[in-house]
């Protein structure tokens, strides 16, 4: 989506901005899982990402994820034991996701997803304001 934003910036072609909006729609829940991969947003928001501090699912003393944190989303490799044990092996690639703190292969929160997401949100906000 960053590449689409830069293409929009350089060319002014609204199709690139529309492509970014489609990507945002996917992340916020218009996807095969009807799952928002963003905490605090969407009908079915991300609740239990794999994160050491936001592990309220394991211990209520820990805080939930803050709004705007984004998970990596579906991963058909299913490297973690939790994803393998809950019946995901053999799932269609875009459906290989479980919102559980122990599923690090499908539900990890990392800087390499959150930083670009922050850039895209800021870009879309700047270009869609009246």
Considering DSSP H and I runs of 4 or more, what fraction of the residues is helical? 25-40%
Please give the count of helices: 5
**Separation of termini?**
22 Å
Largest beta-sheet characterization = none
- Estimated radius of gyration: 16 Å
Order of helices and strands: HHHHH
Bulk shape:
globular
Which structural class best describes the helix and strand composition? mainly alpha
- Taken together, the total number of domains comes to 1
* Unreliable sequence segments: none
Determine the strand fraction and express it as a percent band: under 5%
| Average pLDDT number | 96
Family: Belongs to the glycosyl hydrolase 9 (cellulase E) family.
Keywords: Carbohydrate metabolism, Cellulose degradation, Glycosidase, Hydrolase, Polysaccharide degradation
InterPro entries: 6-hairpin_glycosidase_sf (IPR008928), 6hp_glycosidase-like_sf (IPR012341), Glyco_hydro_9 (IPR001701), Glyco_hydro_9_Asp/Glu_AS (IPR033126)
Protein name: Endoglucanase
